[in-house]
């Protein structure tokens, strides 16, 4: 390759219209949205802690319902941050503490007889920490007489090296607020009674004080974990400065996050797999039957990243130069295709959400032979697959391919889920 | 700068010649890698279903022989996860694994316990959970001590015939999809098709190679390895029928064929692939540990680890040499995520 030829190509490139948008500004918008969305996750998690405090102080049907409502609200901003996960190792290494699933909930509390006991895969699947102040774990005697955030984070979470031992995060709290959903693929969520937190003779299912202690510790841990992540995205934070120090790597990270969540994670593991297994345990928010919302806000988070716009929970709009602007400057048709595909996904996920809100919950959609439910879920899956194809075209067009290869989770992650 | 150089390559090379090389490569992969393997799968799946019709006893020699030969044929296409294999979840229906929550034995046990009539009707069986379908479910029906002896023998016999008939149906559906349009969609990309350019079609095939290598290293070999302190030999693939290592070997042989065809434009890259594949296959051949039971003891575990590293070494050639040669990115695949 001779220098003169390369120079002439450079000249050609430079002669094309100047880019209307700088990568640095696009990266700033991306980091600003992360800071705002994790910030909103923190604010709504603090409200969840307040509601949990009220439930423990004055257990009643009302305080129980208020805590559930706070949990549902907290999921809205958090799920929109998931588009940041796969492109940013600092997020991916951390998020398991907060959003791991599926979980063997018998680790935490009492379960129905149909749950079974310990399995080949997980010796701690039915440990029931709330009922057992001391127990043996991987051959070691463990003192759990006081359940603290530290105990959950350092001793119990992923105990015995098993990812199904989810001791903390949103889904542990969800289980403690709703209980097991014993309705299979029929309508209905978990139906834990508020008296599971009552004192004295009103207490149901025993150990109400320890259950409250666990719930409080798990909720507090969500807040402290989110405080950490908000700081990573603030001015000078590690997540932000990693990106601003490597512009092509940052653009690649954005697209990697969008594509990996769209395809392998959401369309694959979370939606299509559960549907094909007809297994309600494979639905993400299985205790609360909130899965339609979790999927919907995942999709919205992907769209937010591309459009460079996020509506905060207080109504403020965080917006700025976007990936869409970058792509439009290179290839307006491709930008239109990307926008259309993202919109189609949101419409399909919206149809699924609408049907769920009208009474066909996500686990019902997964039932064997429910053709309508299957069509709703597959509508979302197919749209997510289609948008991934376009994301690959965007990667090629923006010329961040070799960066993407090095940073791609697909080459680095040992966690295979299915083929 | 690398991208500029690549772009330059396209501009400077006699355009027709570059396009010819890419087009010939696509046609070669489709005609000589993909189509013959899917034909073989369909033929062997028919033989399996026929054997089940003749004698459905779990230990019947013909049934077990055809099970193994059809399973080999599946493994040889298991990396080709695009197009017809993804329509109507066909590939998922042929192969649901890994199964970390034990869905396959649970699903089969429930069908058998209820003598669920769906298990006697191959058409209706398409609605059953993928955990109850395909090669990995059939393995339980033929080789698992509990499942192969539970409930009513007549019902289990029907179920074996239903599952094998379903495997044949899915295998033919994938082959039909290739022969009635998808082969040309890949070999001759067009603006209105699933691939708009030779680069997009080449990327799909490149992704298939990477998927196969990743799945082989991280899942087929990595899953039973677990961690040093907590090895998981019972997580090996298809250990009940003794196929764990065999699946790795069959996969590598098929992936080598694909890699050589993809790299055909460069003798040097073909040679690099051959070195690494031959090495990995030799390590596998010398292993003498058909179900990776050795992962449980330090000395033999090391040998499985060497096998895993030898597959990782192939991935390096794919990433560092083949990707740039084809001018395509690794893209996204089903294994992305957690």
TrEMBL record, chain A:
Residues 35-390 form the Imelysin-like domain. InterPro entries: Imelysin-like, Imelysin_sf. The keyword Repeat does not apply. Transmembrane segments: none annotated. It comes from the Bacteria. Gene3D superfamilies: M75 peptidase, HXXE motif. It is found in: Cell envelope. Residues 1-20 form the signal peptide. Keywords: Signal. This is Iron-regulated protein.
Automatic annotation (TrEMBL), chain B:
GO terms for cellular component: cell envelope. It holds the Pfam family Peptidase_M75. The keyword Signal applies. It is found in: Cell envelope. Its main location: other. InterPro entries: Imelysin-like, Imelysin-like_IPPA, Imelysin_sf. Residues 34-314 form the Imelysin-like domain. Keywords: Signal. This is Imelysin-like domain-containing protein. It comes from marine sediment metagenome.
